[in-house]
C-alpha cells in the first residue's frame, strides 16, 4: 500500500521565533483575520506586543465602526457594522452594481450594530491587550445608547465625543483616563457633574445651561476642583450675561508680569488671545483666564504661565 503524502506545513508548524516575526510584520487587518483562523493562533497572538497605537469606535443606531491602528503600519483595520438596506441591495442587484471592499475592511450586516460592536470590541481588546482610545457616540438617543456610559470597555478611553444624547443611565465619573470631552446638544450633563471630573479639555456646545450655571462651574474650580483642567469651552443656546457669570468672583485684568498674552495649544488648535480676559487665581496658586464672547465662554488654566521664549523676554 502506497504511503499517503503528508499535508503541506502550515504557519503554525513553523518554529516559534519565525511565527512571532511573521505576526509582527502583519498589519492590523491581517492580524485580526489571522487570529480568527484557529483558537491556538488567537491565544498565541495574545502573548505578543503588537505596537497598538489606538482603537477608535463610532457608535450610532444604524451604523457602528471600529478602527484599529498600529505604530509603524500605514494601513488600519476598519470594522463596520450596519443594518441591511434591503431596498438599496435590491436596486443594486437589478442594476448589477457591485462594490469593491478594501482588504483592510471587515463589514458585518446585522439588526443591532451596537450590540455586535460591543461583542467585537471585547474580543479585540482582549486579543491586542489594549483599551479603547477614542469613542464617538451619535444620537438621537436610542435604547442601546442610554447604557453606553456603563460599558466598562470604554472607561479607559482618552477622548469621548457625544452628539445629541439627551439621556443616559451612566455617568462620566468612571472615565479616569479621559483627556478630552466634547458634548454637542447633550442635555444629560449638568453643571454640578463637572465637580466630580478630572479632565484636561472640555467642550460643551449648544447647551441649555444658564449664566448662573456657568458661575457655579467657575466657583467649583476656584474651590479646588479639577486640577487637570486646561481648557473649558461652553456654547450656550442663549447669550451669556457676563455680570451674572462673574458676580462675586475676584477677577483682575491681564497682568503681563503674571502670565503671557496668548494661551498656547497643540496642533491642530490655535493659540487663544487672552489679552482682554479676566484673570482669577485660586488658593493653590493656579491662575485661570475667563473670556466671554456672545454665546461662548472660554476658561483656560495656566499650568505654565510663560513659555520659555516669554520667560526670556521677562528677564530682559
Number of helices: 8
| Contiguous runs where pLDDT drops below 50 for at least 5 residues | none
Q: In percent terms, what proportion of residues is strand?
A: 15-25%
Strand order of the largest sheet: 4-3-2-1-5-6-7-8-9-14-13-12
List the keywords.
alpha/beta, twelve-stranded mixed beta sheet, two-stranded antiparallel sheet, 8 helices, 14 strands, F-box associated domain-containing protein
How would you summarize what this structure contains?
The protein has helices at residues 16-24, 28-35, 39-45, 86-95, 113-128, 211-222, 242-245, 308-315, and strands spanning 52-59, 63-70, 77-82, 105-109, 134-138, 159-163, 180-184, 201-207, 231-236, 262-263, 272-273, 278-281, 287-293, 296-302. It is an alpha/beta fold and 316 residues long. The mean pLDDT is 88.
Task: Explain this structure.
The protein has 316 residues and is an alpha/beta fold. It folds into two domains: 11-130, no CATH class; 190-316, no CATH class. It is built from eight helices and 14 strands. The protein has helices at 16-24, 28-35, 39-45, 86-95, 113-128, 211-222, 242-245, 308-315; strands at 52-59, 63-70, 77-82, 105-109, 134-138, 159-163, 180-184, 201-207, 231-236, 262-263, 272-273, 278-281, 287-293, 296-302. The strands form two sheets. It has a twelve-stranded mixed β-sheet with strand order 4-3-2-1-5-6-7-8-9-14-13-12. A two-stranded antiparallel sheet has the order 10-11. A hairpin with a 5-residue loop joins β12 and β13 (287-293). It is elongated, with a radius of gyration of 25 Å. It starts with 15 loop residues before the first helix and ends with a helix.
